[in-house]
Amino acid sequence: MTTRHPAPPDPAPPAAGDRGMPPCRCPANCGGLPEARLKLVSPYPVITPSRARAEPPGDPYRPVRRGELVFDALNGRTGAFMGRMGRAVYLRPEGGGVEWETEPRWLAPPSVGPGG
After folding, report:
1. Helix%, strand%, coil% for the chain, nearest 5
2. Distance between first and last Cα of the chain
3. Rounded to an integer, what distance in angstroms lies between the CA atom of residue 38 and that of residue 76?
4. The whole model's pTM is what?
5. Residue 73 near residue 107 (C-beta atoms within 8 A)
6. Phi and psi at residue 16, in whole multiples of 5°?
7. What is the pLDDT along the chain (116 residues), one digit of tens a residue?
């Protein structure tokens, strides 16, 4: 008759912070975890609503052609008109970038915006 021997227990997994790397000797003294000091940067622009204009323009501007510049009075930004879908108007920064949406009532001619 054969005797069954229990399998040896698995060794404990290494600690989460231990990557088996030598101690850090860099000038920043990062402790071997340089990614711990990284700051996340958003690819999207920070939008702060303009306090100068709390109300939409009295006569909202209605862009006609795609690529036409308009001023978004709610966000205080000038952008290229990309299109409409439902009750939203889609704009893109002049130099290209991520689209944003706004309501048509907040659009004004680009000459109304800052620097215009």
Report:
1. 10, 20, 70
2. 95
3. 31
4. 0.53
5. yes
6. -60, -40
7. 667 767 666 665 555 555 566 666 777 666 666 666 667 677 666 766 655 546 888 889 999 899 999 999 888 889 999 999 999 999 999 888 899 999 999 999 988 666 55
